[in-house]
User: What shape does this take?
Amino acid sequence: MLDSAEAAAKLGVTRDWIVSRTGVESLCVAGPEESVVAMAVAAARRTLSAARMPAHAVDAVLVATITNPQPCPAVAPQLAAALEIDAAAFDINIACAGFCSALQMARSLIAAGDCKTVLVIGAERMRDIVDTTDLATAPLFSDGAGAMLVTTTTGPSGIGPVVWGSEGGRASALQVQPPVFGSPQPESASPALRLDGGAVARWAFTTIPNVVREILTRTGLEWDDVAAFVPHQANWNMIRRIARLLEIPEKVVIADDIQEAGNTSSASIPLALHRLIGTGRARPGQWAVLIGFGAGLAYAGQAILIPEKPAPTSTSPTGPD
Assistant: This one.
């Protein structure tokens, strides 16, 4: 765990400067042996164990990640091999919208009759692509992984219709530069995440509230029906402003995992949901609205019924199981 005071000292600012601008009080930093694959495997094992589900019952493995250090092989087949799963396995690279996009793909695979059980994981080592001297990213991004099982049910679906989209014309607001492949690079330039926080925030404030309203409409819900709002943990100030724009009532719990775990990109939603359930602030059988948004720029979200068991399971280098 990296306290924001330590990050601040390296950046020449104060802890209060970081907390007031991001809400981040600490970051999770993976050790050298905690690869993206290793963290994803740990989260998957805990989820399967909690569900009392044998690995061989999994029909597909979907991993949302942007921090696989190798373009190939993908993380998902390596995870499947570690769990002795002989099934379809592939990665989804859409950053902060990745986990909700993967949930929709799992829902569609089951609805089509192609799968009965799909393992969905969000796993990131964001510290690997952060310039530790960059005030825009170094105090914000963190490492972690979370997993969820999506299975068939005899009752109503526990995952509502997705609302998703992209605006690739705004890609420069959040991207890795210089490119990893295909262009000359100065010897001193290492690819790193570059964030125009103002541009992302302006886009989020005009786009995401409307997306969330559409999620509610398509699912047939009102805020009175919802127990928890679980947005991508982008920035605590951004989350609070989106909540105000949506006029979310006080009874709805707003996920705040970013304060202790930072921004973990595609892992942030399962991590945040796990913390809400683990602390008793959200309970099985209640509706939660999920919305991922970020690099692309892209978004994806849906409402889910919090499962009876297992709870979404997460892993982080120093975080709770």
